[in-house]
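Table 4 source record.
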Amino acid sequence: MQNKELALRPLDDTDLNLLTVWLNKPYILSWYHDADEWLAEINERHGAYAWIRHFIVMEGETPIGFCQYYDCCDANDMEDWYSVTTPGDTFSIDYLIGNEAYLSKGYGKAIIRLLSNTIQAVEAARRIIVQPDAENHASNHVLLANGYIYDAQQEYFYKSLN
């Protein structure tokens, strides 16, 4: 990866076409599975899913990916891989690189670092948990490279922010 600065900017309506293209790419569909479900959620980001923070990952003026984070307490009814009872304590993340020119060049690691640092700076979170598919070796690797620890009993990665 070249020494370029990544930034997160809030997703807006002008990003929806690009995000639709990214979510329908075969290498993304293998992990995200249902592009329409993701797009329905994103389209409700000012309504039913206002508690999720959606971002476009930028390298300079170039959009290269998408990421989001949310308080796990807000998603308890939607997820079956964790149980969180304290609001503001535990957050989770999702991320992708949609621009193929940025794959396998260290950008995934940089995105996770930036997203984790953003949560730590903006939220009073105690930890971040994330459960990528076990076969998604690239995602698992970038989490470990960012100090996340795999909890085999819980079957997810976590990072303490204290």
